[in-house]
């Protein structure tokens, strides 16, 4: 038996499992013939069952394929059907792709970042998530992150399930951001799609003075 045949046999995909983790996460576990296991994530909020269905199709299609041939598997998954792309398929395909790279790294004994070209920096600035569904949570969360050594945070721009659809709510939103900036922290803001179009420009103008790192989900 040739080395190539042996390698292909040992890296054949033998099991694909999907796991839901509350409140929204979806993970895929892929195992190959030699027992190596790779993990990937295919989370798509609000469409978990649909992505699970896509994983089932991918499982049936690629069982027994050589997990080392990541690009071949990706290309077949994307191109072998008439309708391509879309959030559901691409989320499942991303999860499978991550798991296959995890397997390759483990089998070669190297971290995946080395396989993808190596590092470009030794340090990376990060921010801490503070939530903020309730007004008092914002400042308390920001203070806690600052005590942990963070210099930047990401926060909810508004209270839970609240639309920014009036000047009053807009001003309350600006006050939340101002309170965090007053602590000496940089801030990124996530609005989770709660900003009405008519208020978006006004909101951006009012927030400009606080120099947000980014405004997400407007």
TrEMBL record:
Gene3D superfamilies: Enolase-like C-terminal domain, Enolase-like, N-terminal domain. Pfam families: MR_MLE_C, MR_MLE_N. Its cofactor is Mg(2+). InterPro entries: DgoD-like, Enolase-like_C_sf, Enolase-like_N, Enolase_C-like, Mandel_Rmase/mucon_lact_enz_CS, Mandelate_racemase_N_dom. Residues 25-117 form the Mandelate racemase/muconate lactonizing enzyme N-terminal domain. Residues 141-216 form the Enolase C-terminal domain. GO terms for molecular function: lyase activity. SUPFAM superfamilies: Enolase C-terminal domain-like, Enolase N-terminal domain-like. Keywords: Lyase. One of its GO terms (biological process) is amino acid catabolic process. PANTHER family: D-GALACTONATE DEHYDRATASE, D-GALACTONATE DEHYDRATASE-RELATED. This is Galactonate dehydratase.
